[in-house]
Amino acid sequence: MPTVSDTSLPAQEPSPVIILDDVAVRYRVPTERIGTFKEFAIRLITRKVSFRYFWALGGISLTVNRGEVFGLIGNNGAGKSTTLKVISRVLRPTKGRVQVFGKIAPLIELGAGFHPELTGRENVYLNGALLGYSHQQMDQVFQDIVDFSELGPFMDAPIRTYSSGMYARLGFSVATSHQPEILILDEILSVGDESFQAKCRERMRQFRENGATILMVSHGMANMSAMCDRVGWIDHGKLRMVGEPDEVIAAYRQENA
Amino acid sequence: MNGLTATNKPIYDSDRQVSLALSELRDLKKYHYLLRQLVRRDILTRYKRSVLGVAWTMLNPLGTMLILSFVFSNLFKAEQFYSVYILTGIITWNFFSQGTNAAMSGLMWGGSLMKQMYVPRTIFGISAIGTALVNLLLSLIPLILVILITGAPLYWTWVFVPISILILVCFTLGFGLFISTLGIYFPDVAEMYQIILSAWFYLTPIVYPESIIPERLRWLFFANPMYAMLKLFRLPIREGLIPTFAQIWPAAAWGIVTLVLGWLFFTSKSDEYAYRV
Question: Which CATH number is A98's domain given?
């Protein structure tokens, strides 16, 4: 795996890689689903196109520094995933400003970019392309992906013949095949069996040592407190608290007890 | 923001105001490998489980042509080399209808990805047209075979065909982007579009000769961009003529205007797709 040199280890002075400045996201939810032109035209004329506005994020300011492992906790629907989406450029903020200083590697829902009829090998290249890598870059890490996923004998079989565990292992191996600058993890560290999970954690540790910034969302509090340098608690689209993992988790637990 | 040096330029800044239509173009350049991979995937997977595989791309229009010429050959006896006439029409039409349909379904497929990661959103439409283009080029092989078998002349004016293809690609991509944007907002469009396509098919002289349409209805052809496209293929392939400027410009204008408008329309909405699909 290509690694960056040691000089990029976290410097004494923190340098921000992700800056959210009063970021707000508003979803527009039609009160009823308008499925046809006719209906839409009629409603437009009669001015009955009504939308319900829903602020998924209501002004979040946050700075994540280089080399940090930052965790987001909060109840379902609090806005954790929306925050990740705003950072990874999937959603444009309705208000506020997002700045990202580095290339983002999203760890997507494992296997979301796979095609069942293609072989494991073909899917590795397709998935790599989706993540923005070139053919040469994928050639470089191909063997590493095969080794890490332990799927050597199955690389030329169509992926529809894989078990869901194999699927997830291949997805994880491709997504983490390059040392990322910023890695985004949305509740997916529970891949495969015990020994594979250990490998995943080991890889995370390596990334971190090599200076990657990791942003993660999880409901597994033990995991969060073990891995994160700082944790932010998001509640109803607002940042309630940022700080030491154990403190924030304790405060969160207290309120949700 | 304090604490930041001026040299430290963000890779992504939501405030940076560039036109969406232009930034999309710039991002596409970075993702050209993905484009190739998507086209490859579509072509490989379409026939992966069939024995004849990609040969079906060539056999399909050939089969349709055989049926149509069998059904209509008595009716349109006057038309010389009727099979070449139909086959040229079918190939041109198939490119358009498959390309636009695939652009629409490709965007729906890409939807699950677009919710999770950033990729240039036009890439699904462009790769759909890319796949249709490979199919178009492959189906030129049976066309040449039919020309040779029926004894129709193989003209040197084929050299014009790449230009015809280029114009058709522009039109199809523009229209595909337009229709897939509508498809995202109104799921019914996908179904409605099939009806529109079949009406459009019969309004265009694909299987019947132009001459059966009475003079006073001919204007219908000139309002129909696919008629202009078809001409650009039939003139050099079947009649041995290089299209005149008067024949080229309507098609070229349709192509360029549709592409520009389709692109602008699509990209103006593209930031909303992630929470629409």
Answer: 3.40.50.300
Residue B264, amino acid: L
Q: Is the pLDDT of residue A2 over 60?
A: no
Query: Of A169, A139, A176, A135, which Cα lies nearest the Cα of A154?
Result: A169
Residues counted in chain A: 257
- Report which residue type is found at A122: E
pTM of the model: 0.83
pLDDT score for A111: 61
Domain limits at A215? 6-103+180-255
**Chain B CB contacts of A19 below 8 Å:** 1, 4
3-state secondary structure of B196: helix
Count of domains observed in chain A? 1
Q: Is A113 on the interface with B (CB under 8 A)?
A: yes
- The predicted-structure confidence for B117-143, as pLDDT tens digits, reads as follows 888 888 889 999 999 999 899 889 888
Q: Which residues contact A250 (CB under 8 A, 6 or more apart)?
A: none
What's the CA gap between A126 and B39, in Å, rounded?
A: 10
Per the structure, the complete domain to which residue B236 belongs is given by 21-209+218-275
Chain A residues within 8 A of B124 when measuring between CB atoms: none
Residue B254 is predicted with a pLDDT of: 94
Tokens representing residue B172 in the block: 């199809």
- Among residues A191, A133, A115, A200, which one has the least CA distance to residue B113? A115
Total domains, chain B:
1
Average of pLDDT values for A134-160? Answer: 88
- Classify the complex by whether its ipTM is higher than 0.85, answering yes or no: no
Is the minimum CB–CB distance between A205 and chain B shorter than 8 Å? no
